[in-house]
């Protein structure tokens, strides 16, 4: 997986793959390949969301901790 892959790019690619599959624009020969790529992209997006959630929660905790010090 590319180091420069962003959440937005992965999500856009997932949307495109889903659209191709829904519209039956993917040949049977490529279907398994597209599904494998989709699985990789889904995992990437999930990891990115979990990491972002953890980071945001840590920032909120730090902000709440700093409030108590200012009082």
Note the topology.
Blueprint: H1 7-22, H2 28-70
What are its keywords?
single chain, 71 residues, mainly alpha, 2 helices, 83% helix, 0% strand
Structure description:
Its EC number is 3.1.11.6. InterPro entries: Exonuc_VII_S, Exonuc_VII_ssu_sf. Belongs to the XseB family. One of its GO terms (biological process) is DNA catabolic process. The chain has 71 residues and is mainly alpha-helical. The chain has one domain. The chain contains 2 helices and no strands. 4% of the residues are buried.
Provide a short characterization of the protein structure:
Keywords: Cytoplasm, Exonuclease, Hydrolase, Nuclease. The protein has about 70 residues and is mostly helical. It is built from 2 helices and no strands.
Count the helices. How many? 2
Q: Please tell me what the overall shape is.
A: rod-shaped
Q: Helix share of residues?
A: over 70%
Mean pLDDT: 91
The helix-strand sequence is HH
Describe the main β-sheet briefly: none
> Structural class of the secondary elements?
mainly alpha
Distance between the first and last residues' Cα: 48 Å
Are there runs of 5+ residues with pLDDT below 50, and where?
none
InterPro entries: Exonuc_VII_S, Exonuc_VII_ssu_sf
Protein name: Exodeoxyribonuclease VII small subunit
Keywords: Cytoplasm, Exonuclease, Hydrolase, Nuclease
EC number: 3.1.11.6
